Amino acid sequence: MFKNHFRIAWRNLIKRKVFTAINILGLAVGFGSSILIYLFLNYHLSFDNFHANSDRIYRMVTEEHRDDIEYDPSVPPAFAKTFLNEYDYAEKVAKIVNYDGLVVDTDINGVESKFKEDIVFAEEDFFKIFNYPLVDGSNNISLAAPNTAVLTETAANRLFGKTDIVGETFVLENDRTIQITGVLKDLPKTTFLKSELFVSFDNVKDFFEFAGSESWGGITTNLQCYSLLRPNQDIGTIETALLELPKKHRAKSKNKHIYRLQPLANAHLDPVYGGLDPTLLWVFGVIGLFLIIIASINFINISTAQAFYRSKEIGVRKVLGSFKQHLFWQFLSETFVIGLFALLIGVGLAILFLPSFNALFQIELSAYNLLSAQFIFFLTLVLLIVSFLSGSYPGILMSRIVPVLALKGKLDHNDTGGATTRKILVVAQFAISITLIAATLIISRQIDYAVNTDLGFDKDFVVMVDIPSELDPVQLRGLKERLGQITGVENVSACLSSPGGSNSNWGTSIKYHNKAEPEEFSIEIKAGDTNYLNTFDIPLIAGRNFFENDSLAEVLVNQRLGEKLGLNSPEEMLGKKFEASGGSVKATIVGVVKDFHDTDFTHAINPVFIGAKNSWFSELAIKINNTNTALTLEQIGEEWSNAFSEYIYEYRFLDERVAEQYETEQRYLSLSKVFSALAILIGCLGLYGLILFYVGQRTKEIGIRKVLGSNVANILALFSMDFFKLILIAGLFATPIAWYLMEQWLQGYTYRTEIHWWVFALAIFSIMVITLITISYQTLKAAIANPIKSLRTE
């Protein structure tokens, strides 16, 4: 029986090639998009699930309670040893410190090569907590001794040109000789570690003294602490016990710490502690579902529209003994055949566009992922569900046709049913498309607002260049003078980081005006020399610029500090004493600058102080003009390389760095645009199929209208208005839904654009224009045809 069903299904599909092609193409695009989204979701949901004891691995994190709550994916440096030695909850505890852009110098057969590498300083037990095996398959990884390192196969080939390098050495930051004790297998892409070179934790003190200390005085997000708990531990009990640690070690601090345990499985998808927002995964999962739904709606609409033309076939089959269930399964068979072809084409489309998808999200999904048992189960399930849902209603509808009426030719389109259902489904299609278009417009406006709004400082044509830490002041001054003499260079400033667009934010407690207790809030440190304000064009609104001395004696602050202190004017802060960074900074406030965005738009502007301390400087900010930029950059590179021949010259434009803060949003905006376009494409295919049906159904009517004087525009308006009414109804449903969803999304931004009514009007109008274009060809073709031929059709 089933063989016969499929044979008849194939014949019917071949007979109606255009409608079959429309259904297959629409479903194929839906399947292909959903496959890419499935791979994307599966990638993000599989992070760090390959470790032997992943269910017992936790990251130690901190809630900092000031005037508000801040969440840090780290703990004070002293926490790890205390947690391991004073409690009996963990088998292993280990710290790592991420340090970017260190110079690695290798010597291979007398040929010296320099590389800039991101380094992880790791305690030995780190590799006993996590499953990152050596190339020989063992976990005998040794980093206990100072000046030792392990690296991945890829890093070994990059640095040494081979992987058999155990016992060889490299020089780190032109100072420290490091011996290689092992080569790791390449790390999976779905792990939180991005660096490929690991150095003994003892060496971190050479570069970041605080991270290598046993201090309870602060937190740096570069330091991460992980623990392997003993089996069957209660996390609530542990976190309750840890409430005593701040009372014991931080009793004098007004910055209250609460230490939490974050499961490793949550680390990648916890936006509170810097992970990806899982809402985005839900959004794109829903978009994938929408695309399948739109394609299924196309199939249902076209199938029910064809019911009239297949009525005689159904009447004959019923007279010859077919039961309703036979006809039902026949239509399901047709749907399955269409779905199977569409699925095969969809898989091909997914493979074709996979490289572009990877490039957009900077991930490495492989076509081999399509061969997994999990993926094959997913495809099979989707095919069966889509086939059943898409074929059930047309099958039920057509199996109810009365054979006597069908055979006598007295059946009209109302008897075949489905007209109201088609309108409801078309409204659903339009509503989904309007929602996606409106969401894309609002996301685009917010990103444009964040990137192009006045940030309170000049980010254009500012070049940021790294400099060695703790550079000799005389050498630094000489370099700045030489750079300032280059034609095209307008200003040069040594600083810790740029005012905004940097990941190097550094917060600390503050004591104001000799108060005995610190303030409830923290303040951001923006170390810079006297050229800092001019280079970044930051306005000074009260007082004067500071004078540089051997010690940090004078500072500038922003308006926000006065607001947090409850002062009425910036001038009230001038001349006041200022203490920060645990007492290492004791200075006088001599000037107040206008507020600038020190972080992205998801956060409020922080209190900031700017002061000159040579040991804090890590970058040069070079303001250039836009005349012969390439030559200016080349000359800057020459001067820099002459000063630091042992280091690697790299530069970044500040505006690029600012834009990177919204890189994730930019990627998801691009994907939203693509999937919105696909949703519209699928919907247009369905509209094209429906208009073919409607034009054929109303051929005689068109002829009569032309004979009675209607022109082409009248006939086009006749068909268009039917769809425009449905679009307006869809807009009434889509607008509040899209507004609510986007309002929730914008809540994540402290500084945000407004949602305007015209966004939804534009989305509705866009759908109208696209619909008009879609239906115009067939409508105009029928409208300009000879009416005599139209009247002879019946």
UniProtKB/TrEMBL annotation:
Location (main, coarse): membrane
Domain (MacB-like periplasmic core) ranges: 20-242, 431-613
Transmembrane segments: 21-41, 280-302, 327-354, 366-390, 424-443, 674-695, 715-735, 755-775
Stretch forming the signal peptide: none
Entry keyword set: Cell membrane, Membrane, Transmembrane, Transmembrane helix
Domain ABC3 transporter permease C-terminal: 286-401, 674-787
UniProt-listed InterPro entries: ABC3_permease_C, MacB_PCD, Macrolide_Exporter_MacB
Name of the protein this chain belongs to: FtsX-like permease family protein
The species this protein was found in: Flagellimonas algicola
Domain of life, per lineage: Bacteria
Pfam families: FtsX, MacB_PCD
Intracellular or extracellular location(s): Cell membrane
Membrane disposition: Multi-pass membrane protein
